[in-house]
Amino acid sequence: MKQLVLPFLCYLVVLINAQLHLEYDGWLNIELYHALDIHEPQKFTLRGNVTITSVNTGSATVSQESLTAHDRNKFRQLAEENRLYRMEAHVLREDGSRSRFLTSSKACALAKSQLTDVLWVSLDHAGSVIGITQSVNHGNFGDCRDLTNRDIDVLDEFNTDVYVKAIENAPVPDTASFIQKLEREREARERGETKDSRGFFAKYWMYIVPVVILVLISGATNPEGQR
Questions:
Q1: What is the pLDDT of residue 127?
Q2: How far is CA 157 from the centre of its chain?
Q3: CB 123 within 8 A of CB 167
Q4: How far apart are CA 92 and CA 51, in angstroms?
Q5: d(CA 124, CA 164)
Q6: Helices vs. strands in the chain: H and E counts, helices first
Q7: Is the confidence at residue 80, as pLDDT, over 80?
Q8: Cβ proximity of 119 and 160 under 8 Å
């Protein structure tokens, strides 16, 4: 019994700690960088900043740079050649740690949406960021055949919605009660205290049913004996 109880207690401690992390609330700062130069794909420049003031509620403020004429021409080339618009998100936590996440979308789809996109921030049970994904409201589709210069010329600022989603814990089974029940049954069997509380038919149905079937068959095949 003690060998089973100890692992369960350890599991319970881990579960309690996880629940405490779920109740943790803090802020996150996310710096956004994008690669616009088709000739220098590894060159990322500042796009803006996102501050999540509460990881529990998902409250966030967004501040982003306007596209310059030079940036707009670079973005035009990405869209016209049906390339990917790539963005890098740098997450800065309260403890000073930093992590990076790379995401992308169709440049022409972003142009058609007038730079309107969505930033999805995924958190684990401890409130740490495990993924950041950028998507376009109108979908990452299109081959840019109907993209015009007017679509590009009017582009100015990004309009971004931020959604924070924490991973939900699965329901925890009541393992303690189940283990205790198994231990009680095992100890009762060892002491010979187990009693069969089933009714007469429940105990001997496997003997009664064949006899009944034989009686019915014999009665059906011998109708003269019944007269």
A1: 79
A2: 31
A3: yes
A4: 10
A5: 11
A6: 6, 8
A7: yes
A8: yes
Tracing tokens 């306007």 back to the chain, one arrives at: 66
Residue 132 DSSP SS3: strand
CA 127/CA 217 separation, integer angstroms: 71
Beta strands per DSSP E along 159-220: 159-166
Q: Which two tokens stand for residue 90?
A: 């740098």
Strand, helix or coil at 58? Answer: coil
Residue ranges per structural domain of the chain: 2-166, 175-226
CA atoms within 13 A on the CB side of 113: 21
Of 93, 142, 134, 95, the residue nearest 115 (C-alpha): 134
> Which tops the pLDDT comparison, 45 or 138?
45
Start-to-end CA distance of the chain, whole Å, equals 67
Within 13 A of 217's CA, how many CA atoms are on the CB side?
6
Q: Kindly provide the residue ranges of all beta strands, DSSP E only, lying in 1-128, ordered along the sequence.
A: 28-35, 45-54, 59-64, 84-92, 98-106, 116-123
Q: Are 123 and 165 in contact (CB under 8 A)?
A: yes
Handedness of CA 213, 216, 222, 225 (dihedral sign): positive
pLDDT surpasses 50 at 15: no
How many whole angstroms separate alpha carbon 118 and alpha carbon 147? 21
Q: What is the mean pLDDT of residues 50-77?
A: 91
Residue count (the chain): 227
d(CA 59, CA 56) in angstroms, rounded, equals 8
> What is the spatial distance between Cα 115 and Cα 146, in angstroms, rounded to a whole number?
17
At residue 170, the 3 state secondary structure works out as: coil
The answer to whether 72 and 152 have CB atoms below 8 angstroms apart is yes
Which has the closest alpha carbon to 128: 177, 95, 103, 158? Answer: 95
